[in-house]
Design goal:
Blueprint (H helix, E strand, L loop, with lengths): L5 H21 L8 H18 L7 H22 L4 H29 L22 E2 L4 E2 L4 H22 L14 H27 L3 H76 L4 H15 L7 H17 L2 E6 L9 H19 L8 E9 L2 E9 L6 E2 L2 E2 L12 H11 L3 E7 L2 E8 L5
Parallel strand pairs: 3-4
Antiparallel strand pairs: 1-2, 4-5, 5-9, 6-7, 8-9
Helix pairs in contact: 1-2, 1-3, 1-4, 2-3, 3-4, 3-6, 4-5, 4-6, 4-7, 6-7, 7-8, 7-9, 7-10, 9-10, 10-11
Length: 457
C-alpha cells in the first residue's frame, strides 16, 4: 500500500505542479493574516497529504480518485490562505488543475514522439530511486520516464512554457476576487464535469498504455485533453468576462436612464431659478429705493442673487445646464470651477450624452478635490477644436494614490457593486462617437483628455 514505486513519488510531483499552477492565479486574492506562515504550512501539508494517500489499487478509477482528493485538499489550502468564498477557491483550483493537465499532456506528447515513453525504469526504483523519479508515469506509475539532465531540461522547458502561457492568458482577465468565479451555476457545473471526465479518460488511457502501448492513440488522446482544458479555461475566463461585461452594460444603461431623468428635472429647475432671480432683483431694488433698508444690505443681497443667476453660457444648452448646476455646487464647497468651452463643437452629441459625459467627468473631479484643503480645490474644463478635431480636457488635483483597472481609475467607495460605473459610461460614450480617451496622473494632477474625430464636427 505504501510501496516506494514511481507512482508513490509521482503523487508528490503532481501536487507540486498543481500548487505552482494555482499560485499563478491566487496570489492577487485577499490574503488572510500571517499569510506567509499559512502558505508554507499549506505547501508542506499538501505534499505530505499526497504521500500519505495509500495506493490500494492501480485501477484507473482509484487513480482518478487520488488526483481528485489531492485537488480537493489544495482547494482547502487556498481557502485557508485567502479570505475568499469556497466557490472562488474551487474556481482557482480548477484553473490550476487545467493548466497542470495541459502541461502534462504536452510533455507526454513530447516523450511519446521522441520514444522516451517506451523506456521502462520501474525495476530501478529499488536500487536508485532518483534515476526512476517519475517525471511522467504510465499505468499508475508502472512505467516511468528516466530522470536525467536531458529529460529534466525538456520537462522544465515544456512546463515552464505552458505555465507562462497560462499566466499570460489569465492575468489580463484578473481584476479582483470578483473575476475568479462563475456567476452562472450551470457553467460552473459544466466546467467541473469537463475536467472530471478529462481526468478519468486520462487515467484510463494511462492504465491501458501500460498493457498495450499505442503511440498514435496516446497522442490523439492528449490533443483531446488539451482541447478540453482550453475549452474549460475559455468558459471560466472569457465567458465569465462576457457575463460581467453584460452586467456592467446593464448597470451603465440604468445609470444613463437615471441621468436622463435628472437632466430633464434639472433643466426645469434652472429655468425656474432664472425667473425667480430676475423677479427678485427688481423687487429688491424697488424695496431699497422706497424704504429705509441699508443700501449696503441691499447690495449684499443682490450679490448673493447674482451668484445663483450666473448661468454658464457655452453655446450648448445641455452643457450650460450641467455646468450651471455644478458651478453652484462648487461655489458652496469653495471649489474654483474654470471653464473654457465652445459648446457648439458638441452639436454632434445628443443632450443626454452631453449631460452624462460631462456630469460624470465633473462629479469625479469634484469628489477628488473635496479631499483637499479649500485653497487647493480647483477644477479646469476645456472644450476646443484644432486640426479638425474636438478636444475635451478636465484637470484637477488629487490626494493619495489612484489605482487603475482596465485602463480606468477604480472607485474609492467601499461598495463597488453600486459604484464605479461612471468612468465606464464615459468610455462607452467616447467610443460611441469614435473618440479616444487618455488618462494621466503625474505630480498630484489628474488629467483626462478626450479626442473626437473630424467626422463628428
Amino acid at each position: 500500500m505504501y510501496e516506494l514505486n514511481a507512482f508513490f513519488w509521482y503523487k508528490a510531483l503532481f501536487t507540486v505542479e498543481l500548487i505552482i499552477a494555482e499560485m499563478l492565479i491566487v496570489l492577487h486574492l485577499r490574503r488572510r493574516s500571517r499569510f506567509a506562515l499559512r502558505a508554507a504550512a499549506s505547501v508542506i501539508a499538501c505534499i505530505g497529504f499526497s504521500l500519505a494517500i495509500p495506493v490500494v489499487s492501480h485501477s484507473a478509477l482509484y487513480t482518478s480518485f487520488i488526483y481528485l482528493v489531492i485537488f480537493a485538499f489544495s482547494v482547502g489550502a487556498i481557502k485557508f490562505c485567502f479570505k475568499e468564498s469556497l466557490k472562488t477557491a474551487v474556481f482557482c483550483g480548477i484553473a490550476g488543475y487545467t493548466a497542470q493537465h495541459v502541461a502534462y499532456a504536452l510533455f507526454e506528447i513530447f516523450v511519446v514522439a521522441t520514444g522516451l515513453s517506451q523506456i521502462d525504469t520501474s525495476n530501478a526504483a529499488g536500487s536508485n530511486p532518483i534515476v526512476a523519479f517519475p517525471l511522467l508515469a504510465y499505468g499508475s506509475g508502472q512505467s516511468t520516464i528516466a530522470f536525467n539532465p536531458f529529460t529534466v531540461m525538456f520537462y522544465l522547458g515544456i512546463y515552464g512554457v505552458a505555465y507562462f502561457a497560462f499566466y499570460k492568458f489569465v492575468s489580463p482577465r484578473l481584476r479582483s476576487s470578483d473575476s475568479v468565479h462563475l456567476r452562472s451555476t450551470a457553467l460552473f457545473v459544466l466546467v467541473i464535469f469537463i475536467v472530471l471526465i478529462d481526468i478519468i479518460i486520462s487515467a484510463v488511457v494511462s492504465e491501458y498504455s501500460s498493457i498495450k502501448f499505442d503511440k498514435v492513440y496516446i497522442v490523439m488522446q492528449n490533443i483531446t485533453n488539451i482541447m478540453c482544458c482550453m475549452l474549460c479555461l475559455y468558459i471560466q475566463f472569457n465567458v465569465a468576462l462576457l457575463r460581467r461585461l453584460e452586467s456592467d452594460l446593464a448597470a451603465v444603461e440604468k445609470l444613463r436612464d437615471r441621468e436622463a431623468a435628472q437632466f430633464e428635472l434639472m433643466k426645469d429647475n434652472i429655468n425656474r431659478i432664472d425667473i425667480k432671480c430676475h423677479d427678485l432683483k427688481h423687487r429688491i431694488r424697488t424695496i431699497g429705493a422706497n424704504s429705509s433698508i441699508d443700501p449696503e444690505a441691499v447690495e449684499e443681497i443682490e450679490k448673493l442673487i447674482v451668484v445663483y443667476d450666473s448661468r454658464v453660457r457655452t453655446g450648448n444648452k445641455a452643457l450650460d445646464t450641467i455646468l450651471t448646476e455644478k458651478s453652484l455646487l462648487c461655489n458652496d464647497e469653495g471649489i474654483v470651477l474654470s471653464c473654457m468651452a465652445d459648446g457648439e463643437l458638441l452639436s454632434f452629441m445628443t443632450d443626454g450624452d452631453i449631460y452624462s459625459l460631462f456630469g460624470n467627468l465633473v462629479d469625479n473631479a469634484i469628489e477628488a478635490v473635496m479631499k483637499l484643503e479649500r485653497d487647493l480645490r480647483s477644477v479646469s474644463l476645456s472644450v476646443k477644436s484644432a486640426s479638425g478635431l474636438v478636444y475635451v480636457g478636465i484637470y484637477n488635483r488629487y490626494d493619495g494614490q489612484i489605482k487603475f483597472e482596465g485602463g480606468l481609475p477604480l472607485t474609492t467607495k467601499n461598495d463597488r457593486a453600486e459604484h464605479g460605473y461612471g468612468m465606464k459610461s464615459v468610455r462607452m460614450l467616447v467610443e460611441k462617437y469614435g473618440g479616444e480617451m487618455k488618462i494621466k496622473t503625474e505630480g498630484g494632477i489628474f488629467e483626462l483628455n478626450i479626442v473626437f474625430p473630424q467626422s463628428c464636427i
